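On clarity, I found the account of how folds are encoded harder to follow than it need be. What matters is that the chain and its backbone geometry are given together, residue for residue. I therefore recommend that a typical entry be quoted early in the introduction. An entry of this sort, consisting of the sequence and the corresponding backbone structure tokens, reads as follows:
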Amino acid sequence: MAQNDLTNPVSKDALQEPPAPFYERVKAMIKTKIHSGAWPVNYRVPSESELVSQFGYSRMTVNRALRELTADGLLVRMQGVGTFVAEIRGQSALLEINNIADEIANRGHRHHARVFSLTEIEADAQQALSFGMQQGCALYHSLICHYENGVPVMLEDRLVNTLVVPDYLQQDFTRITPNAYLSSIAPIVEGEHVIEAVNVSRTECAYLEIEEHTPCLMVNRRTWTGRQDKKIVTSVRLVYPGSRYRLEGSMRK
């Protein structure tokens, strides 16, 4: 007769944890490559197809692992360019500086952008003060609208330091966002944000395809690069129609 389980309990060693999901295994393998130094900062990660062959898991599994590692800040994905190992970011930022194309893709939606202006300008007094330079110095200016499933969700009015990012005007910002490009060229070490509720100009309403006096959220942001000799990379004004977009943030103590 078989003994009662109460008198013959199963040992803890005999209990096994359920196997980790395949995408978690892929994430672990990629993290090992990064933390071991085999894939250093700014290293271009093999393509999804190459990782499928290398790790032996499906493309869907590899894609999910890459998306989650990007959300965790370990990787930077640049549309049309590739995936790269990110610089380690500080833990104290209240607002993440995210790539809107990745945010939209992570929701399973389609992103595209229209470039309304991409040119060189002379800094006026206020712009020069913002960058710590003399009035009349050169800055690059871009005005780009970002769309989610064909609907405008963000107007990006950006100034860029020509000395830090000399090839800015040569980029195709319908294929890669300024955020992704600048992060690859001049990794951020410091940033500041100011958020306001605003009514925007008639012209900006036309770009965003909204009625005049529609409430909008505006983020003014400056970012710096360089550990020893910090330089301002960009000053950008981001406008979000209040009815179409929500900004979220979290803080841990």
Notes: Strands lie at 44-45, 75-78, 82-85, 111-122, 138-148, 151-161, 188-198, 216-225, 231-241.
